[in-house]
Design goal:
This protein is of the alpha/beta class. The protein has a single domain, classed as Rossmann fold (3-Layer(aba) Sandwich). Helices cover 37% and strands 13% of the residues. The chain is built from eight helices and seven strands. The strands form two sheets. A five-stranded parallel β-sheet has the order 3-2-1-4-5, with helices on both faces. The chain has a two-stranded antiparallel sheet with strand order 6-7. A hairpin with a 2-residue loop joins strand 6 and strand 7. The longest helix has 17 residues.
């Protein structure tokens, strides 16, 4: 039987590095049947058209035969969050905002339930998430993931497991597992801007909470940040 792991994949730094790490590990140590299935869940967030395009591009750049085609699911949240910045209403949290400003209640539960049901329907028993040790939110705790996977196993009459390979890692630990030549191709901006040089493509704004977190991650890891911003590093704090 093939050994298949699904991964909740957004195309951001953490999930991009995890996809790269898992695919390389499969190539180096596993048999011919080892495969990774990236799953992207579109919740209707304002930044997701740009993010999804970047996710597809990153998979292509990895070029790993272990990675199966991207599975794209939808989980609309407009009826939950209503008039909310994540749906394009109001100001996007900027670089000075606290992490709490970008918290979307229940987001991990929403993303995981759709992904785990898909896994159960396709005979895949393992879903990997790229949550880090530093994630402060209640739906990123170990007890949440354990209870959630147990509940879904009962609901689907299948053995479903959520794994968190980076659970004990800091952001810097994770960054140093990535390949510097590819890290800038990940996407983690909540206010994407059109690329002046290539209008059909979006780039990082350099001003939002997530861009600030991204810049800090490159700086702390001592890795050159080659991410495209509207004014060549003009918005960076480093």
């Amino acid at each position: 039987m093939p050994s298949v792991t699904a991964i909740l994949f957004s195309g951001g730094l953490d999930s991009g590095i995890l996809l790269d790490v898992l695919s390389r590990r499969a190539t180096e140590t596993a048999g011919a049947d080892e495969a990774i299935v990236p799953i992207y869940v579109d919740c209707g967030s304002a930044w997701q058209p740009a993010e999804r395009a970047a996710a597809r591009r990153f998979i292509t750049l990895l070029g790993s035969p272990r990675i199966r085609p991207l599975v794209e699911l939808t989980m609309p949240t407009d009826d939950l969050y209503g008039n909310h910045w994540s749906l394009g209403a109001g100001a996007v949290p900027d670089a000075e905002s606290p992490d709490e400003a970008v918290y979307l209640p229940g987001r991990n539960a929403l993303l995981a339930v759709k992904s785990l049901v898909w896994c159960g329907l396709h005979g895949i028993g393992r879903l990997a998430l790229a949550t880090l040790e530093s994630n402060p939110f209640p739906d990123a705790r170990a007890d949440f993931f354990t209870a959630f996977s147990q509940a879904l196993s009962i609901a689907m009459a299948a053995d479903l497991e959520i794994t968190r390979p980076f659970a004990g890692c800091s952001k810097t630990d994770v960054m140093r597992q990535g390949r510097p030549a590819l890290l800038h191709e990940t996407f983690s901006c909540i206010d994407p801007q059109p690329d002046a040089a290539e209008p059909a493509r979006f780039i990082h704004c350099g001003r939002c909470n997530k861009c600030a977190e991204r810049q800090q991650a490159f700086h702390a890891a001592g890795i050159a940040d080659k991410t495209l911003y509207p004014t060549a590093r003009g918005n960076s704090r480093f």
